[in-house]
Specification:
single chain, ten-stranded mixed sheet, six-stranded parallel sheet, 22 helices
Amino acid sequence: MIDKLTLRWFTRDISARGALVANALHDSTIDALASRDAHRLALLFDRTAQDERVFGIGLCSSDDLFARSSAFPAALSCADARQTAGKENPRVTLPGGAVLVTRHSLVAAETSVIEAEPASEMILLHDLSFIERRSLDTRRYLIAFLAALGFVVAIISMFVAQISWRGWIAGARALLRGEVGPAGPMPAELAPLADDLRSRLRQLEDEYRRARGPEAGWTPERLRGLLHAELRGDEIIVVSNREPYIHDLDQHGGARVRRPASGLVTAIEPVMRACSGTWIAHGSGTADRDVVDLHDRVAVPPDQPMYSLRRIWLTPEEEQGYYYGFANEGLWPLCHVAHVRPVFRESDWQTYRAVNQRFAEAVLREARTDDPVVLVQDYHLALVPALVREKLPQATILTFWHIPWPNPESFGICPWRREILLGLLGSTILGFHTKFHCKNFLETVDRFIEARIEHEHSVVAVAERETFVESYPISIEWPQPLEGDWASPSDCRRLVIERHGLPEHAIIGLGVDRFDYTKGIVERLNAVERMLEKYPSLIGRFVFVQVASPTRSSLDEYRAFQQQVERLSVRINSRFGAGRYQPVVFLAEHHDHAQLIELYRAADICVVTSLHDGMNLVCKEYVASRDDEQGVLVLSRFAGAAREMHEALIINPYHVEETADAIYRAARMSSGEQRERMISLRHTVRDFNVFRWAGRMLSDAARWRLRARVEERVRKHGLPEFGGR
């Protein structure tokens, strides 16, 4: 590019100089031409060609070369010279190098004797080698200049970096810890970098643990160590509607303990075992009041107490309005977009507010310090964070929303959307299962309330109070069964076949759910029916066991749904059943953990067809139970777990044909492919277990907690002066 530009500049200059040379020689050339003295012209041309830029000169009279300098090539005819000089790039390459050709007409005076002579032209050949020499010199000077400039810039940069290095390092460390730097808050531009760095460090940590093996993963001991190191034994309080242990009266009038079939309990209860503390929940068992002390507390687990369960008592009217009404007829269908119209009643809302106030007051009574760590669980208690924040402004409140968060248009249906949002924004940290749900929440806040939203940091600020919104995919506790705790898969299979009268060589499919319209049970059974239609070779061999724990049976939608499922299973059995063979075994009753483990280990296929789900822990429990590395998971793409468990057969549960084909593929899958898929799934569930979920949340809580404490000290005492080093 530089060479072309230089050539263009010098070409114009050479053409101008050529015109000057021709004008200078004009009269002498005319006189010599008039006398036909070619020798005189040759001498004249040789003297002129001593200029470094002039290579040769020739005089053309008509088409003949009348005279020329000694360097002018005799082979260059006048016709060729004229043709070359008329081109856009009038260059000729000679043995000595490239030359530029210009032509200049000679015009005689009126009294000249050559007026009758043919037209004459002077041909000048200009040496272009000097341009290359000048270009080379220019490049050398330019390179030297840029090198010197780069050296100067490098010296200045090093000097500036040396001056600011310690300040940047201190600021970056403060940012990573969530603190305030010595000179105030760090620049906001660095926060996304710090978030990315923390995320990458977590990924590297997980990869390192996987490389070291299962013993290096997240465990209760590691979680206790994290709490001791980062929260320094701070008080932990969990608040949820459902309790981890229910005491019911048995047939002899004694108290029988059971664990409810709840994903929330499955996830949180191991955390409380690791962290100790207090769990506040609604006491719903028939013997719950009989086992608590004067302060409505009971130590749990019953066999080895590790934390305290504080129970809240609700009247039937309160439970109807708060739980069955607003929470499950309003928020549940609203957030699941489950094609069931949400119902919002003013009386239900008032009861919901009153019960949330009761839970918040229980937190205040149980708190032994003014800054406890409070974990608020799920949509039943959306108002609790703000209520607790009002009385305990120094508390660190983590709220986890266990169900999906809908888009702003859907959530706008709720008449009390503003109150719900402000209640949740009383949290220090608000967690969802996926980034998609976080995005929906931030857009909902932006739509309906006045708040400052920092999307790049996932922070919402209302009235100078900040809430960090983040995704924390929930999981289960990775089982560590003692020898003899679990029967072998073959024994489990034999027991299930005997108990339910299944064919000896049955291919067993399994669904485990609560009786809920969001779980896709109808769609699942329709797919089973379609599979038997398409692939009749499986009739008599394939059996689908559907476990459906009764729930919310007082609500019309749930009763109608249960009846629909029962009618559908009867229809399928009447179409394809024969004798003792029934393709659908419907178990509409509660199963404890041991019974579910037996079914998981016996089943060849586990089918999860949630129409919309925050996570769904059934699929993870199934994978965790398969230590024989066999079995196939068919998983809905609308469950949050589908974002992690890629080796499952991912399906659209609304597409009956696709689901039927996936179940058939699972039934025909080879043992080798099952093992490959199950090994990868088990690694995922083992590494990303419930202790990792809790550890991530509590680590973030510790970071925000530390930052709040530093900011409080700064407000009270001002910034310290930093001297010396």
